[in-house]
From TrEMBL, chain A:
It comes from Gramella jeungdoensis. This is Cbb3-type cytochrome oxidase assembly protein CcoS. The chain crosses the membrane at residues 6-26. The lineage of its organism: Bacteria, Pseudomonadati, Bacteroidota, Flavobacteriia, Flavobacteriales. It comes from the Bacteria. Keywords: Membrane, Transmembrane, Transmembrane helix. The gene is ccoS. InterPro entries: Cyt_oxidase_maturation_cbb3.
TrEMBL record, chain B:
It is a multi-pass membrane protein. This is Heavy metal translocating P-type ATPase metal-binding domain-containing protein. It is found in: Cell membrane. Signal peptide: none annotated. InterPro entries: ATPase-cat-bd, ATPase_P-typ_cyto_dom_N, ATPase_P-typ_P_site, ATPase_P-typ_transduc_dom_A_sf, ATPase_P-type_domA, HAD-like_sf, HAD_sf, HMA_dom. It holds the Pfam family E1-E2_ATPase. Belongs to the cation transport ATPase (P-type) (TC 3.A.3) family. Type IB subfamily. Residues 84-150 form the HMA domain. The keyword Transmembrane applies. The chain crosses the membrane at residues 167-190, 202-219, 231-251, 263-282, 423-441, 447-470, 746-767, 773-797.
């Protein structure tokens, strides 16, 4: 059963990795603007012309 | 006539549409933007949203100051070689099309390397090369496509505030520890005296201990600090029992694992801190695109045009306003702001002081007259001589009053803190009484019971009731366009018994759509030509007047001359009209005696003469806001209402008719008088709400218990305040009051609910049976049910507001 020491160590290390990742992402400012990226990802990379079906207008959204 | 809306900005095409590439535009500005975007393959802009654009309005020479190296240096965030970074606040950002076009700026000009929009803050960050594109050209490019950045004196200060993310860190640490401790403590909840568990429980316990260290000493430190501060100033705030609970939890748990007598309460400890911080986080709803801390700096321009003579020649230069010294000559153009107290040297000044003094009508000033800072010139160019530097003007000195440095919210005793005093005494006495009881009965258990009472009675649920109720309400208010600074404002609002209103801009609308004609009636031909002439003019008054006139038959003038700041001279066939200011029309008029009284001339009006015969004038009145009368009548029931105006008392009689009896009115109040007036009311133990709009109310807004600013456009300047209300929701003020006091009763009910949980927990604690698992269930359960109850209750309240 001494494998449990090993498992404990691994679980703590995995948890710490995610924790550090969270801290780093906050520090980099990823949580400062949580709205704009959600809109940005919907833009098409290249313009698609003569194909109005695909360019469906995005719903009008406003920030709260 | 069928309504045609502009393809670019969606406004109605008042002058008849300008057609271009099968699309209609309301003005050439909109058409130009479309042309620019279309020719750069950026017409995807119009696929994202319908009519997303903003009609561009640029004044000639407005951005000349961006050539001054000192100003450029202050504005740039980063400047090295051919790489420059600048951030602008662009109030026009409003939809996803805006994000798209601004992030594709590099397609419009290849000197732009990248650009990124922060939508909630309405900010654009551009990285560009100033070798190929100067800052001024960049700003003009933005302005040309309708995204004019807002550059004010505030930018010049250049203090970039770091974002405070400590709460997120603390929350992250607490959440991380909470989850891990829960896992580690789970085995010991149910299994007692199990072989393998006995082997490993020590390492589990010490791991939990080490996870709890950052929770207590980092995440929870604010509670200790706040409790200490409270105790030092003799206040038993809610953080005192919380800090006591955390400390006791930690000490007892540590003692238990050292002496090997139990598992400790590390799970409850980290859960408690996590939930408390969650409440704090929820309460922190910020409207990042609004600022509640503004002073004159965000209203004043960053630079002015100074004239100086060099070898006999007069030259103009752009200088930062702080550089202006006494005696400097400065040029103020149409629509520009006078940044310092000055004397008029040249030109016809017509100054709009409505924002500064509350006077509704622009005032005329003659050569040699004194002009005060904050006025806006309307009309032609004037030349003034500075009397004082900017910081010492009459207006800016208002900000040296102590109310502006005082923190309002710290003095306010919140409901939670009021109850925490009794609560702390109650809990401490229960703890001592039960400890004394057990001392006699079974001394070994006394310490156990004493700490158990303090642990279980830790007012987590009570501390969560107010943040979640008020935080929810803050969001509901936000949906109805009342943006409040923080949650204490709601509690303050519930206590208000006196409401003071400013007049100009607050209970009157800034739109001058109430136009009356006085004089000899115009003939049909005159009316037709009048409409035709006004259509061709871009003066704001012409536009406003054109909008209200009939447009059935319009005759286009054959001769059309516009004299800036004076009026129009037009003719068609044998009819000639002069339209404009009194002085302009009065010249060459045969029947000058027909002219109205001198005081009439002071009002905003457009005079008309036809074939050198004076006809009459259109006078523009500020109209009172919709629902004014019904709002006042519903408020008058339980609150005292006062009108405090910087304007003269010309409207007194009219107001007395509209408003309920008992409304007190005071006129000719200067900014300092308003502040003093509010102070006097507060000395009579009144809780005062000030509703205002301009710089002249700034002192009163800061002094009042709750200062609300009415704003026609929430993106433009408003003085420091506790809340900003969209002018269209003016009639809802009464509902906001009702909702605030209902929120207070929701909080009171949740106090009762959480006290019930505390009583159950105390039952366990006093009888000496508090198992860690009971605490670990009871504490989250009480917190979650409080959160659920308050959220449900506020949502129901919010629904009622809609109906």
């Amino acid at each position: 059963m001494s494998i449990i020491y090993m498992l404990l160590a691994i679980s703590v290390v995995v948890a710490l990795i995610f924790f550090v990742a969270f801290i780093v992402s906050v520090k980099e400012g990823q949580y400062d603007d949580v709205y704009t990226p959600s809109v940005r990802m919907l833009f098409d990379d290249e313009l698609i012309k003569n194909d109005p079906e695909k360019n469906q207008p995005v719903n009008k959204e406003k920030s709260n | 006539m069928e309504k045609i809306n502009c393809f670019h900005c969606g406004e109605e095409c008042v002058d008849g549409p300008i057609n271009y590439s099968e699309k209609s535009f309301c003005c050439t500005g909109c058409k130009t933007v479309f042309e620019i975007l279309n020719s750069n393959d950026l017409s995807y802009y119009y696929d994202l949203e319908k009519a997303p654009g903003i009609s561009p309005k640029i004044r000639e020479g407005k951005y000349d100051f961006l050539e001054n190296p000192e100003i450029i240096e202050k504005l740039l965030e980063f400047d090295h070689g051919d790489s420059q970074i600048v951030s602008f606040v662009i109030p026009a950002i409003h939809c996803s099309s805006c994000i798209w076009i601004l992030e594709n700026l590099k397609k419009l000009h290849n000197a732009v390397k990248s650009s990124q929009v922060d939508f909630p803050k309405k900010k654009l960050r551009i990285s560009f090369s100033s070798k190929d594109l100067s800052l001024k050209e960049l700003v003009l490019l933005l302005a040309r496509i309708g995204y004019e950045p807002n550059i004010s004196l505030e930018n010049f200060e250049g203090e970039k505030k770091g974002i405070d993310r400590s709460l997120i860190y603390k929350l992250g640490v607490a959440g991380f520890a909470f989850g891990n401790i829960m896992f580690l403590s789970f085995p010991e909840y149910f299994e007692i005296n199990e072989f393998w568990l006995d082997q490993f429980k020590h390492i589990f316990r010490w791991l939990m201990f080490s996870f709890s260290l950052p929770v207590v000493f980092y995440s929870g430190k604010d509670y200790f600090i706040s409790a200490y501060k409270g105790l030092r100033s003799g206040i038993l705030n809610i953080d005192v029992p919380i800090a006591l609970g955390i400390a006791v939890l930690f000490l007892r748990s540590t003692a238990e694992i050292i002496t090997d007598t139990g598992t400790g309460f590390f799970d409850s400890l980290s859960g408690l801190v996590f939930f408390l911080l969650l409440g704090k986080f929820f309460q922190q709803k910020t409207y990042s695109f609004l600022s509640f801390e503004r002073d004159y700096k965000s209203y004043f321009p960053i630079a002015v045009t100074r004239i100086f003579s060099e070898t006999g020649q007069q030259k103009e230069e752009q200088v930062p306003v702080y550089k202006i010294q006494k005696g400097d000559r400065v040029i103020i153009r149409n629509e520009e702001l006078i940044p310092m107290d000055a004397i008029l040297i040249k030109g016809d000044a017509k100054i709009d002081y409505s924002f500064v003094t509350g006077e509704a009508e622009p005032v005329k000033r003659k050569r040699g007259d004194r002009l005060y800072a904050g006025g806006r010139q309307q009309g032609s160019i004037i030349e003034v001589e500075a009397l004082k530097p900017v910081q010492q003007s009459y207006l800016t000195e208002l900000w040296s009053d102590e109310v502006f440095s005082k923190d309002k919210s710290s003095a306010f005793q919140t409901l939670t803190n009021q109850i925490s005093k009794r609560f702390t005494f109650g809990v401490l006495s229960i703890a001592f009484i039960s400890a004394i009881f057990w001392m006699y009965y079974e001394p070994a258990k006394a310490w156990n019971v004493f700490t158990a009472v303090l642990i279980i009675a830790c007012p987590c649920a009570i501390a969560l009731a107010a943040p979640f109720t008020l935080g929810n309400l803050l969001r509901i208010f936000g949906r109805y366009h009342l943006y409040l600074k923080d949650t204490t404002v709601i509690e303050q609002t519930a206590k208000i018994d006196t409401v003071v209103f400013d007049k100009t801009g607050t209970i009157t609308s800034n739109k001058r759509d109430n136009i009356k004609y006085e004089g000899i009636e115009l003939t049909e031909e005159e009316k037709e030509l009048l409409s035709g002439s006004l259509r061709a003019s871009n003066h704001p008054l012409s536009r406003a007047l054109y909008r209200v006139l009939q447009k059935n038959n319009i005759s286009t003038p054959e001769v059309f001359n516009e004299y800036v700041g004076q009026g129009l001279e037009t003719s068609s066939k044998d009819l000639s009209l002069k339209i404009g200011s009194a002085a302009f029309v009065k010249k060459n008029v045969a029947n000058a005696s027909f002219f109205a009284q001198p005081e009439e001339l002071e009002k905003t009006s457009v005079h008309i003469s036809s074939n050198e015969q004076y006809k009459g004038c259109f006078t523009f009145h500020n109209s009172y806001r919709e629902h004014l009368s019904s709002l006042f009548n519903s408020l008058a029931g339980d609150k005292e209402l006062i009108i405090l105006s910087g304007d003269n008392d010309g409207e007194r009689e009219k107001l007395e008719q509209i408003l309920p009896r008992g409304t007190r009115m005071f006129f000719n109040q200067r900014p300092g008088d308003k502040l003093q007036f509010i102070k006097d009311l507060q000395n009579q133990n009144r809780k005062v709400m000030m509703v205002g709009d301009g710089l002249n109310d700034a002192g009163a807004l800061a002094q009042s218990d709750v200062g609300i600013v009415i704003s026609e456009d929430i993106n433009v300047f408003s003085p420091a305040c506790d809340g900003i209300l969209d002018a269209r929701k003016f009639g809802k003020i009464h509902d906001f009051f009702g909702l605030s006091s209902k929120a207070i009763s929701v909080i009171k009910w949740s106090f009762i609910l959480s006290l019930c949980y505390n009583l159950i927990g105390l039952g366990f604690a006093v009888s000496g049976n508090l198992m860690p698992v009971v605490a670990a269930i009871l504490m989250p359960l009480s917190s979650i049910s409080i959160v659920g109850f308050t959220t449900l209750a506020t949502q129901i309240l919010g629904k009622r507001l809609k109906n």
